[in-house]
Amino acid sequence: MSKQSLIGTCIGGRYRIGDLLGQGGMSHVYLAEDLKLKGKKWAVKECLPLEADDMTLFLEEAEMLARLQHPQLPQLVDYFTTEDGKGFLVMDYIQGPTLQDLFEEKGRELPVAKIVHMAFQLCDLLHYLHTFQPRPIIYRDLKPSNVMLNEQNQVRLIDFGVARHFKHGKQSDTMQMGTIGFAAPEQFLGLQTDARTDLFTLGSMLYYLLSGGQYAYITQKPLEQIRPDLPEALTSTVRLLLQEHPQNRCQSAMEVKMRLRSIYSESAAAPEALNLHTPYTTSTTDKLIVIGGLFAGVGATFMAITLARILHSMHIPNALVEQPTIEPDLYMLLYGDSKAPKDYQFASNQISGRTSATISSWTNGFTTWVPLHPEGFQSSWHPADSFKLLHTIKKPIVIWDISTHWEDPSVQEICHSADEIIVVVDASPGKCNRPSSRVHFNRFDTYQQRGKKVHYVANGTMPGHFRNEWVDSLPEEPLCTLPEIPRTEVMRAVWKGECIQDQTEVLEKLKDSLNPLLREILPADTIRKSSLKGSKSLFSRFKKHS
User: Domain Protein kinase: where (predicted)?
Assistant: First the structure.
């Protein structure tokens, strides 16, 4: 049955075919009227005559779409095949222009903030697909004509005809499909496609939209040469997405989103602010800071609490999260049995349990504590869970304590998205030369090559001529050194049930020692304002000495 003769006919016993909405090499999409639900309109996708293998692919797409439950993805309501070997998908009809339509209508020039706002939404959608259970879904055909916009500037993905489930261990795809100009190299080389394939297509689409409709594979020019007015962090993110080899790209949709959030807030790029052309800046930009030790017992959690309380003293809202795969320590150090809110619910348990209850909050001044249950985390923790937890916290600065679990997949995922990585070492060249330490150093070097900031902080000093040997065992000299706190002061704080970092003189000592690190991770004006806020008047100093 040709598309001309299909129009006006009834298929599936209830769908009267109307106008042709669009067509591709393997399918046509029609507007159809539901004869059973009077007045209801559907989009009906006709897949051209199916061979045995094609029928399997069709049924896979239908079953995959049927399981998707997301307001910005097409909702499948029915599917069936006909005697002449055609398959039909019945989906909700989405009214509105495609992104390609809008792009052409505006003379191939859209506000940068609007493009970034769409990128935020696409990152969320890709994250949903890539973390879909029981198997991730790879979209594989992201392009402006497959993105629709409603009146609220909400993006919706359409056409899942090229999408597939990701299968671990599979070396190549059975079909290499995608749109030339946007598809990743592996789609045309017979190689396995995965989440990073979708990230390449996202980078291709951003390049296309930001360059006035040019294709990266044709121009072979960095985006900054075409648009020198764009923020460097934006052009470098696009450049990273377009790397030929998947291992050199951003590794997750959330990493892309975190990179974009470092220069544009989601609120600054929201629909009501779409006329903005300038990056979002505040005195304190959103930051995700990962803190871990090179080896056990080096003081990573002490460093994390210290940084949280320094930020508190500077009136900067922050949260300290204990990585759910590590041995719990934070609740005990914070004297949770007496200090935690009554009936406190541990956030990691709520996230992993998929409960709909509001996440409990344990706040102390400007710091929100997110500890593990003292008996440990009993469920499995996935990378997607980390981003769900991160999304619920909503603090400008989040400190993520990973202890020594650098090799954990969820830790590596959060490191890919981190703005700063702080590695705590102690003054022991022997430990730094361990094989496990060298493996960690190589991992940190990889993060640095991908544009991540890695800072080394020493806990304790190496005396005399041994210092040079110790420094030589490290990739670079530590940025600063945590001072020794007399054991008597620590024990006194323990007996009082207090954090030693909340003692004013101790905190000032710690803050002075970590000042080089603070200058690296905080904007200069934030540090300057904090110094003014913390300065004492002549009268208060006179009173103290009196």
Answer: 15-264
